[in-house]
Amino acid sequence: SSLSIPSNPDDIMVATECMHERYYFSDVHIRGHYSAFAKKEWEREGTKPVMESGDEEILAEGKCDYLGFSS
């Protein structure tokens, strides 16, 4: 079998947006910060979490060393 690569730009954008939504929380745990996508989404929605002084440092220091999946 072969992997089908979408050629329609709209399909690629939908897949990318789904990926951003799917990895929203794990990105923070693994990278130690909110993604640019999340920040832009908050801007579009007019929402964002309340961040206090030092919160970004706490996120950066508390990131995971390992992420495992089990089925």
Notes on the protein architecture:
With 71 residues, the protein is mostly helical. It is 55% helix and 0% strand. The protein has 4 helices and no strands. The protein has helices at residues 9-22, 24-31, 36-45, 55-61. It is flat. The mean pLDDT is 86.
Gist?
By secondary structure, this protein is an all-alpha fold.
The string of secondary-structure elements, in order, is HHHH
Strand pairing plus helix content: what structural class?
A: mainly alpha
Kindly provide the radius of gyration, computed on alpha-carbon positions and rounded to a whole number of angstroms: 16 Å
Number of strands: 0
Average pLDDT taken over every residue: 86
Shape from CA axes? Answer: flat
Give a short account of the largest sheet.
none
Distance between the termini: 24 Å
What's the helical proportion of residues?
A: 40-55%
Tally of helical segments: 4
Low-confidence stretches: none
Residues in β-strands, percent: under 5%
